[in-house]
Write a structure and sequence with these properties.
With 324 residues, the chain is an alpha/beta fold. It has eleven helices and nine strands. Helix 2 links the parallel strand 2 and strand 3.
Length: 324
């Protein structure tokens, strides 16, 4: 297998035109509900708004990990800490960031996916992290919407290809191989988001990207999508208020969330984006200071298209002004 280190080049989005996510680096091996590929340009603006490069980025609800991967690939911080409680997702990240990465890549390349082989694999009881990682990738790539929560059904029709419609073994294996090159920059923790945040609470050189399951304000989408969806949102906002380092949160645009942000003295800004069904909607960015956010722009949620991009680094791109 040829190992290729991908560092695509692209401009920070400033126009009001929707971003085609197929032109944004697709680095995660997951199809993840609520994935943040669409946020890449804004996240990059936030990271470049600091006068001093942060020493560490912590993603307490890592999930598909696109923000952590973006940070590691593009050198936006010296160290990345990914935190995830879900056992299935954790097994994938543990395997990819270990010496078993190539085992997983080859297992994916050699697997002949059919409805029968998928069911047989999903009915197994994995004995090791790497076996669970492979099973999780199969489940993620064959379930409706990539949902890993209990009860998710297997694709039957997707794009006319049925169960094969989201199974791209070469692409998935290549992404795993690419991540190997930056694995030394990433620390993975299977554990509780609040405990890790508390441990790094006093560090001024650490920043946090926080994307919890959207269950505030009576929203139940998170409970349908994730195995661990219950979050004490009030406690999360209070924890953010106590952090010495900066943070950026994303949330569902709900009135209850706006009220929480205001109560804790945070700014919130609705960001227009388009989901995979091309419906325009908004999500909230929440932080202490959102003056760095450029007006305009519509961002697309992750789509099933895959485009690995060019092999150039954009690290020399910087925003028009730095404030902090």
């Amino acid at each position: 297998m040829t190992q290729t280190y991908l560092l695509p080049e692209y401009d920070v989005i400033k126009s009001a035109r929707p971003v085609n996510v197929s032109s944004v680096p697709q680095r995660s091996p997951f199809r993840y509900p609520g994935g943040k590929t669409w946020l890449g340009p804004l996240f990059r603006c936030w990271m470049f708004s600091f006068q001093t490069e942060p020493k560490r980025l912590i993603e307490p609800f890592a999930g598909g990990g696109i923000i952590s991967l973006t940070t590691a690939f593009e050198g936006l911080a010296n160290e990345v800490v990914m935190v995830e409680m879900d056992r299935q997702i954790s097994a994938v990240w543990k395997t990819i960031l270990s010496d078993d990465a190539q085992w997983l890549a080859k297992k994916i390349l050699n697997f002949e996916l059919t409805p029968e082989t998928a069911r047989a694999e999903l009915n197994k009881t994995p004995n090791t992290d790497r076996d669970l990682a492979f099973q999780t990738i199969v489940k993620n790539r064959t379930a409706h919407g990539g949902i890993l929560a209990e009860g998710a059904g297997i694709l039957k029709h997707g794009d006319g290809k049925g169960i094969l419609s989201r199974w791209y073994p070469q692409t998935i294996a290549q992404r795993i191989t690419n991540i190997e090159f930056i694995a030394s920059r990433i620390k993975f923790i299977q554990g509780d988001a609040f405990e890790v945040m508390a441990k790094h609470q006093k560090q001024t050189d650490t920043v946090f990207f926080i994307d919890p399951p959207y269950t505030a304000g009576g929203k139940r989408a998170g409970s349908r999508l994730y195995n661990h969806s219950e979050v004490d949102h009030e406690h999360l906002f209070a924890m953010c208020e106590s952090l010495c380092g900066d943070f950026l949160m994303t949330y569902d645009n709900a009135e209850e969330v706006r009220a929480l942000a205001k109560c804790h003295g945070f700014q919130s800004k609705a960001v227009p984006m388009k989901n995979t069904h091309h419906a325009e909607m908004t999500e909230l960015l929440i932080g202490r200071d959102l003056d760095w956010v450029e007006d305009g722009g519509v961002f697309r949620e992750e789509s099933p298209a895959y485009h690995l991009g060019s092999q150039k680094s954009h690290r020399n791109i910087s925003p028009s002004k730095k404030k902090r």
